[in-house]
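Quick start: load a record and inspect it. Here is Cyclin-dependent kinase 2 homolog:
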Amino acid sequence: KPPEIKCLIRQLADALDFCHMQNFMHRDLKPSNILITGKGDLKLCDFGLSRDFEGPGNYSTRVITLWYRPPELLLGARHYDARVDVWSAGCIFGELLSGYALFPDSTEIQVFRKICARTGAQAPENWPEEVRRLPNWEKFFAPPGTRGAPPAAEKNFFADLRAKYGAVCVDLLKKTLHLDPTLRITSDAVVSHEFFDQEPLACQPHEIKMPAPHMSCHELGVKKRREERDKELKEQQAALSQAPQSQGLLANVQGPGSKRPGGGAPGALPQPSPKRARPP
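Running the structure step on this input writes:
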């Protein structure tokens, strides 16, 4: 409901603004990194990719989960500021309004093309000159009518939201999803946007109707299945270590000289991935 959405987004904006006031970027804002207490209070979690900042700097592009990554990071920008978090917050805002993720896909280039389609930015002139100078621009952008061009613009996306939630709501959403990071709204400006002063006003946190406890998001389900799979692999590895002859049997099944995906000796089990170094 609009009052609940407004309450959640206001709390998210307040939390984000607090981080930015302390000169910290979160850099992995997404639904599964947002916790809501039984009383409806919103909390940010997982600051593993966060870092301090003092204005634009030479930072890593390999941050922020793909669906919530802003276009400047997709295009290879290394000089950015806290407004990368605002884009992610805008994606979450749009998800609450529409009921589905705005830019879901499995590769950077496909996510970029979804951004082009949903925002109507199919032509180069729709993009700021600074963005067109970024390293991946020529690789990612294909003009309309050429191979690899973005799909047709989804002209009804913002119009449908405007009809349901009003022009002021869509104005805030568009400002959080501005393609030019230098013109994108800041977290403190989100907090003071007139959207929060319009009727219906935000409800109180304790008035938010919480989902049933057994409900979980898709991403958490995927993570759980991955953990279960890793546990099963470790158990298999432990069993094989207690029975050395199993290695030979497995190698014979695979055939001489064969390799498992990702390299390694024949019959070798996949090893757990090493921990990633913290990005700059």
